[in-house]
Design brief:
Order of helices and strands of chain A: HHEEHHHHHHHHHHHHHHHH
Helix content of chain B: 55-70%
Oligomer: heterodimer
Radius of gyration of chain B: 23 Å
Structural class of chain A: mainly alpha
Strand order of the largest sheet of chain B: 1-2
Order of helices and strands of chain B: HHHEEHHHHHHHH
Strand order of the largest sheet of chain A: 1-2
Radius of gyration of chain A: 21 Å
Helix content of chain A: over 70%
Shape of chain B: globular
Distance between the termini of chain A: 49 Å
Number of strands of chain B: 2
Shape of chain A: globular
Strand content of chain A: under 5%
């Protein structure tokens, strides 16, 4: 009896079985985790080939088919998100081997892998789902595993931040569930196809509003971002990279999908979303300028960048929604890669120097040069200098905004960019030494194999910009709106 | 003439709201928990009146039973810690102030603004709810059509374990993630001493334990034809674990960790393996062959029930068993 396996099932079940094995065999957890990650990446590559050759693929689970059953569907956007997740995940996992090797970290070593693999199960599940109730279940999986990762470091600040994160996350999920209830009440269906072309009645508008607020809470859109900085800044470095690079993207992706299938929000509502994004860009920037610690600065920059993604999403008004999702998707990919690199680099710097107080970075006799270089490269992509992927995303954003005459979004983007230059410069200034401390020995202690993974990510963040055209055409595969006119 | 059931429903609805308000406003934590438990029981009754006995069972067993036990245990812990030893949190090791709530006066304006805002949102949602079709289209007809192919007779079980089995698998994964997350938190504090048990206790446990096992297993078995199933049965069986833990009839030890881990993942692993392995000969994942559907569903439910029971009991214990203090849970 041969078992028919599809790449989509593997992308969800490989991490799940990996998590089970890693939980059962704590001593071999790291090995199991890496193997599971590598195999999952292989499955995603297989899936990408399938999608590339024959367009979107659908798998009706249980053979029932929507709306009774649940379908899995992979199109260009799903596969791009899956690829981001597994590629970034694999590199973060490699660097986690080094980051968690301390003697006092046996507990973290033991539990990082099952939690991270469960998280991966949930994230991959979101990207393949076509059913809003299933999405709710998936974001619950993500929420619990992510809270577990947040408190992994075991410090009191992390536990406190994790608790806050959990409250926010559960509240967000409940709001989303309430929205799902309204959709079911109105339409009697939960699958994406059932949502399309629905008349925007009161119940559906309530549903969209509830789901959007719930997701905004989960993705930390200003002013619902309160939980993010503490949670991301206090986690251990690999966990921070996963939380900031990947976890918030799942909720963002659901927003993109809802915008695609639900009745279009009105112009005024879209402007409101854009204004929330603009608020995030500015408030996140101000807080990043004021942050005293490196990881906190990076966490606030996540708030600002997520705001920018929402600006990209809302920038061209109602008509532009068929086009603007691409700018948002590019920014999501760019931020995922660059922010993971940056958090890992920040973690390396903290490990080497022993603290991450920005003001005292240049006083340290130790120079983790490679980690600092990685940080700078990642910052280039986040600021949006060419030829990085961040640049392409911002370019698409501004091009669309200008084409539709919405100049105010261009201004917001520019202000955000300038602010990011300003707050990252604070860190760069700390990297440059003005010979406040002379250390004859140990000058370049900070070179380690552990820098390889973040450096690769940072180079990818820059280099992917050169591949923007193929990425864009891949994103469009199987997209229901097709290529916009 | 008014149907007496309408009056009953009205009274039920009113008392549920009143209990919710009371449990939110009462100051004493113990009273709050008791009110919450009563609130849960009445909600279960409301689910029965809404002809959703499956939800009612789940609400009674999990929402009220297990949650109530968790709340009471937390309260016991808080009182013990506040009364005696300092609370050390994690590796930080800083002592935390006893959980004395510091009342922060909120300006009246803020309260009013909040109330107005929340009121507006509630009003909006109520309008949207009333505007929606009251007996809207649903899955009922689809489910009824597909029931003969599902292998079970009870529609809820058909939906949960066949039509939308993927969702249910992921719900079990949520529970697994919860227990992994709880186990990895090293709280660095000792357990509260066991409450002193009266004389009645031993006799009660002797009578109750076998009955609970029978009820839990029955709920699982009957799930194929009537309300019941893995989650309800598992929650009832978890009560066995709670009793064993409370009476110290079972004290988890580090040596039991392997077995406990196995029990946690059993349901997820069995469910996922079945889902994958049935995909052959033109079938896709989760597509059980009809002649084996009932067996497979029962197998899955049995394993999931065990996992749920052990996991809930372990969540009640609340930590990975470490050397010396009391611990997680046996394997029923």
């Amino acid at each position: 009896m041969s078992v028919d396996i599809s790449a989509m099932m593997l992308a969800i079940f490989l991490p799940l079985f990996g998590a089970i094995a890693a939980f059962l065999l704590p001593r071999a957890a790291a090995l199991i985790g890496l193997v599971a990650l590598a195999l999952t990446t292989g499955a995603v590559i297989w899936l990408a080939r399938e999608v590339w050759q024959s367009g979107a693929v659908i798998l009706p689970l249980g053979g029932w088919g929507a709306p009774l059953g649940i379908d899995l569907r992979a199109d260009g956007l799903s596969v791009a998100m899956l690829a981001l997740t597994s590629a970034v995940g694999l590199l973060v996992s490699v660097s986690a081997l080094d980051a968690l090797k301390g003697a006092g970290q046996s507990r973290q070593r033991q539990y990082f892998w099952p939690l991270w693999l469960l998280l991966l199960t949930g994230i991959n599940g979101v990207y393949l789902s076509t059913d809003i109730f299933n999405l709710y279940v998936m974001i619950e999986v993500i929420a619990l595993a992510a809270v577990g990762l947040t408190v992994l470091s075991g410090t009191r600040a992390a536990v406190q931040a994790g608790l806050e994160y959990m409250y926010a996350s559960i509240l967000g999920a409940l709001l989303f569930l309430m929205g799902v209830g309204f959709v079911y009440l109105q339409l009697g269906r939960l699958d994406f196809a059932g949502l399309m072309d629905a008349e925007p009645t009161g119940a559906l508008i309530a549903a969209v509003a509830l789901m959007f607020v719930g997701l905004a809470l989960k993705t930390a859109l200003f002013p619902l971002h309160f939980w993010l900085p503490a949670a991301h800044a206090n986690a251990t470095a690999p966990a921070s990279a996963l939380l900031s690079g990947l976890v918030v993207k799942a909720a963002l992706y659901i927003v993109l999908r809802l915008a695609q299938y639900m009745p279009f929000p009105s112009e005024a509502l879209l402007t409101l979303v854009g204004m929330m994004g603009a608020g995030a860009v500015i408030w996140g920037g101000i807080q990043a300028l004021r942050a005293e610690r490196l990881k906190l600065l990076v966490a606030w920059s996540t708030v600002a960048q997520i705001g920018l993604i929402f600006v990209a999403f809302a920038r061209a008004g109602e008509l532009g929604l068929t086009e603007s999702w691409k700018a948002a998707a590019l920014l999501i990919l760019a931020h995922g890669v660059a922010k993971a690199a940056m958090f890992l680099a920040a973690g390396r710097i903290k490990d080497e120097i022993g603290h991450d107080v920005i003001r005292d970075l240049d006083r340290s006799p130790i120079r983790p040069t490679l980690a600092q270089f990685t940080f700078a490269l990642a910052a280039i992509s986040l600021i949006g200098l060419p030829p990085s992927l961040g640049f392409i995303g911002k370019w698409a954003l501004m091009e669309g905004a200008m084409a539709s005459g919405y100049w105010h979004w261009v201004v917001v983007t520019m202000v955000g960019t300038l602010m990011s230059v300003a707050y990252f410069s604070r860190v760069f200034a700390g990297f440059l030494r003005f010979d406040r401390v002379r250390a004859p020995v140990g000058e370049h202690q900070g070179w380690a194999l552990a820098d390889a993974a973040p450096l690769t990510l940072a180079f990818a963040a820059i280099g992917l910009g050169l591949m923007a055209a193929p990425i864009l055409s891949f994103l469009e595969i199987g997209y229901p709106f097709g290529v916009a006119p | 003439m008014t149907d007496p059931l309408v009056i009953f429903d009205l009274l039920l609805a009113l008392s549920i709201v009143a209990l919710a308000v009371a449990s939110l406003s009462v100051r004493d934590l113990f009273a709050m928990i008791v009110l919450f438990i009563v609130f849960g029981l009445l909600s279960a009754l409301a689910w029965v009146r809404l002809s959703a006995p499956d939800v009612a069972l789940a609400e009674a067993a999990i929402g009220t039973g297990v949650t109530g036990a968790l709340l009471l245990k937390t309260l016991h812990h808080l009182r013990f810690v506040a009364g005696g030893q300092g609370l050390r949190a994690g590796s930080g090791g800083t002592s935390m102030a006893p959980a004395a709530p510091v009342p922060v006066p909120v300006p009246v304006g803020v309260i009013l603004a909040n109330a107005a805002f929340c009121g507006l949102i509630t009003l909006g949602l109520a309008v949207a709810f009333l505007g929606a079709p009251s007996a809207g289209p649903g899955f009922d007809a689809l489910v009824a059509d597909a029931m003969p192919d599902s292998g079970v007779a009870h529609p809820v079980t058909g939906v949960l374990l066949n039509f939308r089995a993927y969702d249910t698998l992921m719900e079990v994964v949520v529970l697994l993630a919860a227990v992994v997350a709880v186990w990895q938190i090293e709280r660095g504090l000792s357990d509260a001493p066991a409450p002193v048990m009266g004389e009645v206790w031993q006799g009660f446990a002797r009578l109750a334990l076998p009955a609970i096992v029978v009820i839990g297993t029955y709920l699982l078995w009957v799930g194929a034809e009537a309300p019941g199933g893995a989650f309800q049965g598992g929650a009832v069986l978890a009560a066995v674990g709670l009793l064993l833990l409370l009476t110290r009839a079972y004290v988890p030890r580090p040596a039991h960790r392997g077995i406990a881990r196995g029990a946690f993942v059993l349901g997820t692993a069995a469910f996922a393996l079945v889902a994958l392995l049935v995909a052959s000969g033109g079938r896709v994942a989760f597509e059980y062959p009809l002649e084996h559907a009932k067996t497979l569903i029962l197998l899955i439910e049995g394993m999931v029930t065990l996992s749920i029971a052990v996991t809930l009991a372990a969540l009640f214990h609340g930590r990975e068993p470490v050397a010396l203090p009391k611990g997680g849970r046996d394997d029923t």
